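Summary for the lay section of the report: proteins are chains of building blocks that fold into shapes. Here we show the chain for Fumarylacetoacetate hydrolase family protein and then a coded description of the shape we predicted for it.
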Amino acid sequence: MNQERISLLAQRLDDAALYGRAIPQFAEAEGLSMQDAYAVQATAIARRLQRGEHRTGVKMGLTSRAKMVQVGVHDVIWGRLTDAMAEADGAPLSLGRFVHPRVEPELAFLLRQPLPAKPSMAEALEAVAAIAPALEIIDSRFENFKFSLGDVIADNASSSGYVIGPWHAPGQDFSNLGLVLSIDGVARQVGSTAGILGNPLRSLVSAAVMSAAAGEPLQAGWIVMAGGATAAEPLNPGQHVLLEMQCLGRVEFNTT
Ligand code: OOG
Ligand code: MG
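The coded shape description reads as follows.
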């Protein structure tokens, strides 16, 4: 696919995100390859960076069975994070800019050094400065939150916002930490970090491999979101959203 067409699709997605308006799926009609889809994603992110946003890291997507089943796409994908997507722990979150937002429980990594293109699990762990419980706000730009693999890749893996809880040194085993996602005091999703590829560290290894292959190796200071450990929950105004994670504490926000 030529760059002109890729730019047009990137603009369509970027506008949909800017104005909170859903658009029809296009991957199938456009005959988008995986490579085209990632090119659309990169071009849409370039538009955001041109507007003054700064790159903060990588998000992994569809790294758990629960997530794959929920959206009907069964491949691990990745997307790019910017500072405009960061929301403060405990702060109000206005849903006005979203189309049909959902929230999901994740684990976040903070990197203290760059990662090689194909790290071992030990090398990946060595590069981790800190880990934190985190909430991701996803918001597909596609109508009815329905998409194919190519669509969701182009759409930056539905990335919309992220909230990071307290950082901890990665001294403890975080491969199987229990977690509860509650909305208004009611437990809505219960799971474990083990839901993320059996161990979220595998997600970090995949992030290193996939972003290095795209020519953007993981950098010191970047955040890597490991992917939802459970299915996502729809968000509505007036909710209190809380993630409690074994050993790592809590992260929360209130929707308006
Ligand atoms: C795709 C994004 C997946 C995750 O953590 O699995 C994702 C979607 O569910 O819309 O962020
Ligand atoms: Mg996610």
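Put simply, here is one thing we learned. Residues 63 and 197 are 6 Å apart (CA to CA).
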